[in-house]
């Protein structure tokens, strides 16, 4: 039984759905998620201890990467379970209210925006596509991308000539990669309802080999997801030295910010930056993005 001092952690808001959640599903702090019905919407919540999720301890925890990673994985586990039975509107990591009444107040205050967002993602899921330049595969045959010439230049002029030729080769590689990424994004966008262009990943943080030249999210109808995956798969060997990665399916994380709908943030929710919100699942960057209009 929950202690009276427990707070309410909110994972997502959904339209009512009939399929039950997994019987053994647990979420943040090991608590099972519950459905909190209010009017024609449902919030998916669980009880979390005030000692960890009140304002001051939560602020401290958000500086603890291990705690943050564990919490993000538990949050994502609930969202992933919801995605199998409905199209949830995920809320930002560590959205916490004092009690059920606070959650209901939020739903009433944001009812119109919640409905608009849910309408947008209904029957749709998110796919992520990344393109990387693989330095080893774009280097001349038998030479590492970072290698110096096997024959030592005879003069300083030969050395400068070699460096200039290497710069030109690298410029050609990046130009080809960016052209391919732009063309791929335009092609995939024609098969998506909306898109997001996230900033390229920092390789030191993502630990993915190569330089990231495309980091995009696509909102796709469930009924067309198989077709979308096939489109991506057909591009994977188009350009030697370029690696195309597909991730998903996800809940519509990149398309679920209530701020997208031109109004104020949710009142009563924790308004901290979503540190690790999606990073723990896909190492994407939900910061700056560009958006293309829905295609009807």
UniProtKB/TrEMBL annotation:
PANTHER family: PROTEIN GVPL 2 (PTHR36852). Pfam families: GvpL_GvpF. It comes from Streptomyces jeddahensis. Keywords: Gas vesicle. This is Gas vesicle synthesis protein GvpL/GvpF. Belongs to the gas vesicle GvpF/GvpL family. One of its GO terms (cellular component) is gas vesicle. InterPro entries: GvpL/GvpF (IPR009430). Residues 191-210, 255-296 are annotated as: Disordered. It comes from the Bacteria. GO terms for biological process: gas vesicle organization. It is found in: Gas vesicle.
């Amino acid at each position: 039984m929950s202690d009276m001092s427990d707070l309410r952690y909110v994972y997502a808001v959904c339209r009512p759905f009939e399929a039950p959640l997994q019987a053994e599903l647990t979420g943040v702090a090991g608590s099972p998620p519950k459905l909190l019905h209010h009017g024609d919407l449902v919030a998916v919540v669980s009880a979390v201890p005030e000692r960890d999720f009140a304002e001051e301890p939560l602020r401290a925890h958000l500086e603890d990467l291990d705690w943050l990673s564990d919490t993000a994985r538990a949050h994502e586990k609930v969202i992933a379970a919801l995605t199998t039975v409905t199209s949830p509107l995920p809320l930002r990591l560590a959205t916490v209210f004092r009690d059920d009444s606070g959650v209901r107040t939020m739903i009433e205050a944001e009812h119109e925006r919640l409905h608009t967002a849910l309408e947008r993602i209904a029957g749709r899921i998110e796919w992520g596509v990344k393109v990387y330049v693989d330095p080893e595969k774009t280097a001349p045959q038998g030479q590492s991308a970072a290698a110096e010439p096997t024959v030592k230049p005879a003069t300083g002029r030969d050395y400068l000539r070699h460096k200039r030729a290497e710069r030109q080769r690298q410029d050609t590689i990046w130009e080809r990669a960016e052209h391919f990424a732009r063309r791929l994004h335009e092609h995939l966008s024609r098969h998506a309802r909306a898109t997001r262009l996230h900033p390229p990943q920092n390789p030191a943080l993502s630990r993915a080999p190569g330089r990231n030249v495309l980091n995009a999210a696509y909102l796709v109808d469930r009924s067309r997801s198989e077709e979308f995956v096939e489109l991506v798969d057909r591009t994977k060997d188009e350009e030697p030295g370029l690696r195309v990665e597909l991730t998903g399916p996800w809940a519509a994380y990149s398309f679920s910010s209530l701020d997208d709908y031109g109004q104020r943030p949710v009142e009563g929710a924790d308004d901290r930056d979503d540190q690790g919100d999606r990073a723990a699942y896909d190492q994407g960057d939900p910061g700056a993005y560009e958006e293309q209009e829905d295609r009807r």
